[in-house]
Amino acid sequence: MATPGALPDLPTPDTCVQCGLCLPYCPTFRLTGNESYSPRGRLAAMSAVIHGDAPVDAEYDDALSSCLGCRACEAVCPGLVPYGAAYEVAIADLADRRPTQARKVRRWVLGRGIASTTRVMLATRIAAVAQRLHIAKILPGLARRGLTGLRRLEPGRAPWKGRVARPVGEPKGSVALLSGCVMDAWFGPVHDATVGVLVRAGYEVVAPESQTCCGALAAHDGHRAEAQALAARNVDAFADFDIVVSNSAGCTAHLKEYDHWTQTHGSLNPAVVDATEFIAQLIADGSLPRFDSARRPGPDVAMQDPCHLRHAQRITSAPRTLVAAAGCAPVEIDNRGLCCGAAGVYSVLQPSMSEDLGLQKADQVHASGARVVASANPGCEMQLRTYVDRGIRIVHPVELYWERLSAD
Ligand code: SF4
Ligand code: SF4
Questions:
Q1: Is the distance from CB of 377 to CB of 248 less than 8 angstroms?
Q2: Suppose 25 and one of 72, 166, 271, 360 were both cysteines; which one would form an S-S bond, judging by CB atoms 3.0 to 4.6 Å apart?
Q3: How far, in Å, from the CA of 94 to the mean position of ligand 2?
Q4: pLDDT tens digits, residue range 131-149?
């Protein structure tokens, strides 16, 4: 039995054979050429610390803190080294052993602050006022980039948390929607679209009032007790449903790996699916229609693969299925799926590398010529909006599909 607050025994970084095949896929190694910023270097550093051969010092902190947690290395590793799981353990251990003032603040913000709907709504109202005053240009870098990345906020709109939507007739099943820490307040139209499509497919959709933030941001920053407490609340909130659907790739990936965080509380029982994969299945089995692009062609859509969709969940075809079924033409921009630099709170902690990666992703979008970009993750969407040319639309693939379905 694991002790409360501890992570379960997970595969160790020792399984890495140091072959280096993952290096070309690691965004931080590509930017720096520095072995300490590579998967191989980080895994070696984790091993050295575990075996007591190296201290937990500033150098180690830098090596781990500069990692995006994108898991591109894990997806291409021939030895199936579980980088993401090893990193989760290592970053939690690091946060415990180097409790800097900044980490204490982040522990509260990511572990408690964003789990409060009241606090998120208050922050949303402040940001909405700032948007309407058009003051982004005069704000310092971090606040300017954050405000630029947001959609136009509508603080008066009703959140989905606590609501139910029913189909006409007997439901095919009961779906729990993860309302998320900021999805309801900042990305309400993505929830509208997800609920609209699922109800049209015959499902009852419920956003349980007792749910909370999934805990991914706290977990990825090493705040294990807080991540475990959030996971425990959601295990209870979702227990009575057939399936849990999330339209934020980072949250879905975290929910799918909840067993790492809920071992003292029991597993999350319903299956978890990303909204893109669930709706793609419904299109494939004929429950939802495909729209003919020849009859009414939609725009070219540049496809941005969120790392926690592509690398962590290995989902690439589902968002393309949605975009094509909406009558649009998916356009490939990056066959390696390099991280856009959003990565949770990475843009706050590592602004320089985050900006380099954001500009690189924007160049890929601009080179495609597409005026619409589809991204299935809120952080990536904000990063794209910060760096791509104004006038290019950033949209969730479910929204594109819902727009066509609801207009039909
Ligand atoms: S993580 Fe995998 S691909 Fe990368 S160096 Fe280690 S064994 Fe090789
Ligand atoms: S998770 Fe991403 S940034 Fe971190 S080592 Fe792997 S590829 Fe590099």
A1: yes
A2: 72
A3: 17
A4: 898 887 788 777 888 889 9
Cβ-proximal residues to 316 (8 Å cutoff; 6+ apart), any chain: 305, 309, 310, 337
Q: What is the pLDDT of residues 352-382, one digit of tens each?
A: 999 999 999 999 999 999 999 999 999 999 9
Q: Which two tokens mark 108?
A: 């509260």
Instruction: Report phi then psi at 106, rounded to 5.
Output: -65, -35
For the CA atoms of 330, 331, 333, 334, the dihedral, rounded to the nearest 10 degrees, stands at: 60
The tokens describing 331, both together, are: 């356009």
E strand segments, 257-377? 271-274, 300-303, 329-332, 372-374
Q: How far is the CA of 78 from the centre of ligand 1 (A)?
A: 7
Of the bound ligands, which one is closest to the alpha carbon of residue 70?
2
Torsions phi, psi for 89 (to 5 deg): -65, -45
Query: How many CB atoms neighbour CB 106 within 10 A?
Result: 21
pLDDT at 269: 85
Residue closest by Cα to atom 8 of ligand 2: 26
Q: Determine the residue type at 136.
A: A
Closest CA to 161 of 237, 242, 239, 275: 237
**Structure-block tokens of residue 42:** 């980080």
Find the mean pLDDT for residues 149-160. Answer: 92
Distance CA 241, CA 246 (A): 14
How remote is the CA of residue 172 from the centroid of ligand 2, in Å? 40
Compute how many other C-beta atoms are within 10 angstroms of the C-beta atom of residue 114: 21
Is ligand 2 within 6 A of the CB of residue 46? no
Distance from the alpha carbon of residue 232 to the mean position of ligand 1, in angstroms = 33
Q: To the nearest whole number, what is the mean pLDDT of the chain?
A: 93
- Give me the percent of the chain exceeding a pLDDT of 90: 85
| Helix or strand holding residue 372 (H, E) | strand 372-374
How far is it, in rounded angstroms, from Cα 91 to Cα 45? 12
Atom of ligand 2 nearest to the CA of 339: 2
Closest-lying ligand 1 atom to the alpha carbon of residue 83:
1
